[in-house]
Q: What sequence folds into this?
């Protein structure tokens, strides 16, 4: 087994664990947490949203640390923080411990999810990291497939507190050794200070590119998170039964994996901007098909949405690399993705209100947002050398 394959398997497995025990955790445990602690379910989701907001603040600092020291010490530390946050959450009997546990998990999310893994790969492989980034997203794309059943099984047998402790143990017994075993990257001197996104771009790409990418990722991630929370409700609002809605919704996950395979198998021959443009067009096209044909076209929408979302997850790592190069990648990536975390935190609440008011017509909003991201991608040019690109 080649060194790159081992690296992808190691990081991909660790990322699957990190996503399953944080981002995908409340879908299964939010209600039992609320019932046991006597708190409204909305309070649990509020604590989770606060964790996402904190992760947006942590991201740039974690990226800077990876730029300087490599991914091994940062990601290994996040394994310990994930375990500590989950253990603290398991002891919650009221809002204070609940929020404290989730905020600690938010710190780990800001320094231990995709952006950090991408930065670790770029630190090791430079501009050759695109294939490895795709490989990691292929593995970690199974986080919900693995995480939801495992969380549900643990909750049924040892309760939600035991489930949190079980995930904490997995971070110590599996995640920590995987991250400690990452290749060593020699420390670099600290980068010169920057003022933020507008001045963070090196001469290789114009300054506005970082802002355009930040908007594209925020818009698409808002829609991805909103649909993850409300797609079954949208499907039922369009006339499907619960069983039908769940069956159609189940198409999204395999379609995401198929999109990543498409990127790995064919689209990687092109500039990642081309892949991102193709991916961003899929959700709006799916919305138009659904609205024109009706609920019968919902499976087509689900597949198109999943394909696009799968490819765009990879673009979050490859586009900043293509435009700005590997130097300072971690910190710059942290700033570019920070608005996405904020959008992600508010997406379920805001889009849920639209679904309650408009039903399936709320898809016009999601389609418009992703269409605006697609237009922004059309505005960019693949050239890296042309300063007017």
A:
């Amino acid at each position: 087994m080649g060194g790159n394959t081992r690296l992808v398997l190691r990081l991909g497995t660790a990322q699957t664990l990190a996503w399953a025990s944080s981002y995908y955790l409340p879908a299964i445990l939010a209600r039992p947490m609320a019932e046991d602690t006597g708190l409204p379910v909305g309070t649990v989701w509020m604590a989770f949203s606060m964790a996402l907001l904190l992760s947006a603040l942590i991201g740039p600092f974690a990226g800077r640390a990876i730029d300087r020291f490599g991914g091994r010490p940062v990601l290994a530390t996040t394994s310990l923080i994930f375990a500590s946050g989950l253990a603290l959450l398991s002891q919650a009997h009221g809002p204070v411990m609940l929020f404290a546990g989730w905020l600690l998990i938010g710190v780990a999310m800001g320094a231990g999810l995709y952006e950090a893994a991408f930065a670790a790969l770029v630190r090791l492989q430079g501009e050759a990291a695109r294939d490895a980034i795709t490989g990691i997203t292929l593995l970690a794309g199974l986080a919900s497939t693995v995480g939801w059943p495992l969380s549900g099984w643990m909750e049924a047998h040892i309760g939600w507190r035991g489930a949190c402790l079980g995930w904490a143990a997995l971070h110590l017994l599996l995640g920590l050794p995987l991250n400690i075993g990452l290749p060593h990257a020699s420390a670099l001197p600290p980068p010169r200070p920057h003022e933020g996104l507008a001045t963070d771009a090196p001469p290789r790409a114009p300054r506005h590119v970082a802002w355009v990418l930040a908007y594209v990722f925020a818009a698409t991630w808002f829609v991805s998170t909103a649909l993850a929370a409300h797609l079954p409700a949208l499907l039922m609002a369009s006339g499907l039964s619960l069983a039908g809605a769940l069956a159609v919704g189940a198409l999204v996950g395999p379609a995401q994996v198929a999109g990543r395979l498409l990127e790995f198998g064919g689209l990687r021959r092109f500039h990642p901007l081309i892949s991102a443009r193709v991916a961003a067009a899929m959700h709006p096209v799916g919305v138009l098909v659904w609205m024109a044909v009706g609920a019968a076209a919902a499976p087509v929408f689900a597949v198109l949405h999943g394909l696009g979302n799968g490819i765009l997850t990879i673009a979050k790592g490859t586009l900043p690399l293509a435009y700005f190069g590997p130097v300072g990648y971690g910190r710059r990536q942290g700033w570019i993705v920070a608005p996405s975390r904020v959008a992600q935190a508010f997406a379920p609440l805001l889009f849920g209100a639209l679904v309650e008011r408009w039903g399936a017509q709320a898809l016009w909003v999601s389609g418009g947002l992703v269409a605006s991201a697609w237009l922004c991608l059309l505005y960019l040019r693949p050239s890296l050398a042309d300063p007017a690109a």
Confidence is low (pLDDT under 50) at residues 193-203, 385-389.
